[in-house]
Structure formats: structure tokens, C-alpha cells
Specification:
By secondary structure, this protein is mostly helical. It has a domain at 61-165 and 173-334: Ribonucleotide Reductase, subunit A, CATH 1.10.620.20. It contains 23 helices and four strands.
Length: 509
């Protein structure tokens, strides 16, 4: 009896102490090999860490609690997905044009989640401190879950719409997908601290709301309850990721003042790279959603100018300033979505999703959201293309564009302060000339020319005959496009959608 009472009187460990035993208590310093040989990447970037125990764990989440927490979210998510599929939820979209945002998301974003899963697994292995190792492990698992739930969600759409097939194949071949792919290839081939700055801080903390909020809010506004649900299911993970991203920055800055210029250079680089990649989201918000939530300019003002400004004001005490070219990116918010849509409209015959010209009502919306730029610079272009389309001469650009050697986007962006002139920069390296769309991209190349000179540029590869052959038909076959990739007005997606709506009208009538 006394033994039972004695056992019952033992107090449970506080959560903080339990977490320490289950994580940091498992760490040991190596003896057969010195620590610097076991963790060689922890120092070669120049980052100085004097005390790994100073790492503050933002979420003291043990593995058993993690699995229980995620399992509950899975049950709720798949209940919604099953209901959506059984009730043919895709017929409740505002318009089949919306589906093209999901084609872009599946091929452009979901593979990045898998790359993040691998990247955080690798970065965690390179950290000599147990705190960041555990944090990387949790985020690596999150990223794997995200790609799985996204694929499961959009697999239902693959039963009815073109463009969802072969997405892993397209990820490594399609010309515009080289933009997000090169972003993550650049990150995972960096050192562990740069990777954490690139993905954990610059992308997850500074820019993630510009990706996830528009996509998931856009899904809700356009009747896609399945996508909205997986977005909300991932958002609690994203909150943890954002906190981790901020913690790694503060940890490096507090460890040694010599880390400050290194971290600043990384922030400058990855802010610009992220800004360029998110131009795809800008295009989606302004042109691809039948029912719009806000303009890209409004989103940039809310999530970067205001929220980002407050963040960097807080980091100023460490000696960190706003990213270089932040003011250029803010000025480009008036132009980037229109310029990107114009690029994709011209080359939709070589893309995995459809494009179209905005309607009169949609152009009026764009005019109201962009009063200083749209009517002056972009409406006349769309009016011209509309007249060509009426004459049966829908404009397709059959040439191959010059690409930026850093961001790999076609050279369609304009000079800061002059939207009528194409921006053009160049550098020489080892006797070759490399071209860039901006000062930001040129700076990144010039800082690491030996890395970026090896970039796999789709247009160059096509010219060299490495993409299936010399003709457009050869390249499209190599992409494995299924033939339904022209203007939306002539698409099988639209034909099927119109049949569904006609059937609904007959039933209701």
C-alpha cells in the first residue's frame, strides 16, 4: 500500500523539462571522431556559433504529441475530401478557368514541398546543436505531409480536367517550372544556414503569406472547399515554420556580430529570388481567379510593405536592414502580374494550363486596382490581342524567348521607372556572356558565378536538341502534354464545363 501511495505521489515532469529529456537529453558529443568532422558543414559558410544551447525552441513539441496532433488534422481533412469527391464538388466552382490555378499549384508548388522535406532533413543532419536538429526534423515531416495532402486533394480533379497528369515529369522539364525548381535547387545546394535563411526565413516567414493566403482564400471564394481545407490544415504547420524561420535568424545574429553581414547578404539574395518566383502568384490573383479576393498590389502592400516593414524594424537592433531592392520590388507590384500574364498568353501553346484574355468587366476591375498603370500600359495590348482573336488570328509567339540566367524567367520585365523599355543586364564569366532581367538577378549571379553558370536553362537546352527534338511538336511530346493546352476558349475543359452547366440548367428548368 505504501509503495502504491509512493508511486502515485510522484509529480509529472513539466512540459519544458519533459521536452528537454526527450530531445536535448539524447544528444552526445562524439569521441571516435571530432565534432567538426561529423558536422563539417556547420562552419564552412563562415557562421560562428559559440553556444548551441542558446537555441530557443519556439514549439516544444515532442514526437508523440506531434503524431497525435497531425493525425487529428488528417481525419478532418480526409472527411472533407471524401465529401467533396462524393458530391462532385468540382461542379460548384465559379468557372472552369479556376482549375488552371490548381494546375499551376500542383506542378509549380507541390514538388517544392517535397524538395523542402528533403532540404530540411539534410540541413538538420548538418547542425551540431540538437535544438535546430529537432526543429528541422519536425518541419521535414510537415513538408512531406503537405505534398501528400495536396496530391490527394487534386487527384480528384485529374479525373475530369487536363493538365494534372505527369506532374513529376513536368517539374524537371517544363520551361516555366524551371523558375520554382531552380529556386529550390539553389537553396538545397547551399549550406545548412543559408538553406534555413532561404526557406525558413525569407520564404516561410517573409513571403509565405503572399503564397498561401491568396491561394487558399482564392479557393474558398471560388467554391473549392477541398483546396481550402488542405490549406487550413497546413496553416498551423506554417505558423510553426514561420516561427522557426525567425528563430534561426535571431540565433545566428545573437551568436556573433560577424554573422550579421553574411546573414544580410543571404536575406538580400533570397528576398529577390522569392519575389521573382511569386510573380506566378501575382498572375494567378489578378488574372486566373474568376472571383478575385484582392489584387497583387494590395496583397504586397499588406503582407510585405506593412508586415515585412514591421519585421525588419524589429531586426534593425541586430544591424539588419530591409532587403536590397525592396523598393524596386514594391514598385514592380504595379506591373509584374500584367507582364507575367502577357508572357504566358503568348506561350500558352507550350504550357500545361490554359490562358485567356480578361473580359471587359475584369479589365475594369484591373483598371480600378491599378489606376496608374493598367489603362496606360496594358489595356491597349489586350485590346489589340482581342481584335486579332476576333479575326481568327489568336496571337501565339512561336519564337523562343531569352531567359534570365538567374531567375530563368523570359526577359519580359521592364526598367525601373520606365514600363516601356525591357530591362536588360549582362555579365561575363569564363569568356561567356550571361543575361539578366534585373539588377537583383545580376547581383546574385555575380556573387556566385561558378554556381549559376551551370544553370539548366530550358531555351538553351531546346536549341541544343536536348528536349526531344528540334520542332515544337517534338518538345511538346517530350513534355508529355496531352494536346489540350491552347486558349481556354477552345479547350476540352471549357467544352466539358459548358456541358455540365447545360445539364444543371435542364434539371433546374
Amino acid at each position: 500500500m505504501n509503495a502504491i501511495n509512493s508511486g502515485a505521489s510522484k509529480k509529472r515532469l513539466p512540459l519544458k523539462e519533459k521536452y528537454r529529456h526527450l530531445t536535448r537529453g539524447l544528444h552526445w558529443d562524439t569521441t571516435y571522431q571530432p565534432m567538426n568532422k561529423v558536422f563539417p558543414h556547420a562552419a564552412y559558410e563562415g557562421i560562428k556559433i559559440h553556444d548551441w544551447d542558446k537555441w530557443e525552441d519556439p514549439f516544444r513539441l515532442t514526437m508523440d504529441a506531434y503524431w497525435k496532433f497531425q493525425a487529428e488534422k488528417e481525419r478532418k481533412l480526409y472527411a472533407v475530401l471524401d465529401t467533396f469527391a462524393q458530391n462532385n464538388g468540382q461542379t460548384n466552382f465559379t468557372d472552369a478557368r479556376y482549375v488552371n490555378t490548381m494546375k499551376l499549384f500542383l506542378t509549380g508548388v507541390s514538388p517544392l514541398e517535397y524538395m523542402a522535406h528533403r532540404g530540411f532533413g539534410h540541413a538538420g543532419r548538418q547542425m551540431a546543436g540538437v535544438g535546430p536538429r529537432v526543429a528541422c526534423q519536425m518541419q521535414s515531416l510537415d513538408e512531406l505531409r503537405h505534398v501528400q495532402t495536396q496530391i490527394h486533394t487534386m487527384s480528384h480533379l485529374n479525373k475530369y480536367f487536363s493538365g494534372f497528369h505527369e506532374f513529376p515529369h513536368l517539374h524537371s522539364r517544363m520551361w516555366y517550372l524551371s523558375v520554382p525548381k531552380s529556386f529550390f535547387d539553389d537553396a538545397v545546394t547551399a549550406g545548412p544556414f543559408e538553406f534555413m535563411t532561404a526557406i525558413g526565413f525569407s520564404f516561410e516567414y517573409v513571403l509565405t503569406n503572399l503564397l498561401f493566403v491568396p491561394f487558399m482564400s482564392g479557393a474558398a471564394y471560388n467554391g473549392d472547399m477541398a483546396t481550402m481545407t488542405f490549406g487550413f490544415s497546413a496553416q498551423s504547420d506554417e505558423a510553426r515554420h514561420m516561427t522557426l524561420g525567425l528563430e534561426v535568424i535571431k540565433f545566428m545574429l545573437e551568436q556573433d556580430e560577424q554573422n550579421v553581414p553574411i546573414v544580410q547578404k543571404w536575406i538580400d539574395k533570397w528576398f529577390w529570388r522569392g519575389h521573382r518566383m511569386l510573380g506566378l502568384v501575382a498572375m494567378m490573383m489578378d488574372y486566373m481567379l474568376p472571383k478575385r479576393i484582392m489584387s497583387w498590389k494590395e496583397a504586397w502592400s499588406m503582407y510585405f510593405t506593412e508586415a515585412g516593414g514591421a519585421l525588419f524594424a524589429d531586426l534593425a537592433r541586430y544591424g539588419i536592414r530591409l532587403p536590397k531592392y525592396a523598393e524596386v520590388a514594391t514598385a514592380e507590384a504595379d506591373h509584374i502580374s500584367h507582364q507575367n500574364w502577357a508572357i504566358f498568353y503568348q506561350y500558352t501553346h507550350a504550357a500545361g494550363f490554359h490562358t485567356w484574355l480578361p473580359s471587359d468587366e475584369e479589365m475594369d476591375w484591373l483598371s480600378a486596382k491599378y489606376p496608374d498603370t493598367f489603362d496606360k500600359y496594358y489595356r491597349p495590348r489586350f485590346d489589340l490581342w482581342r481584335e486579332m482573336e476576333k479575326e481568327g488570328k489568336r496571337f501565339y509567339n512561336m519564337g523562343l524567348p531569352q531567359l534570365c540566367s538567374t531567375c530563368q524567367i523570359p526577359m519580359g520585365y521592364t526598367e525601373p521607372g520606365d514600363p516601356t523599355s525591357i530591362a536588360f543586364r549582362s555579365s561575363k564569366y569564363n569568356g561567356d556572356t550571361y543575361h539578366f532581367c534585373s539588377d537583383g538577378c545580376k547581383d546574385i549571379f555575380d556573387n556566385e558565378p561558378e554556381k549559376f553558370s551551370q544553370a539548366w536553362l530550358p531555351v538553351h537546352q531546346i536549341f541544343q536538341g536536348n528536349c526531344g527534338g528540334a520542332t515544337m511538336e517534338d518538345v511538346l511530346k517530350w513534355y508529355k502534354l496531352d494536346g489540350d493546352n491552347m486558349d481556354y476558349a477552345q479547350s476540352l475543359d471549357k467544352k466539358m464545363w459548358d456541358e455540365w452547366q447545360a445539364g444543371k440548367n435542364r434539371v433546374s428548368g
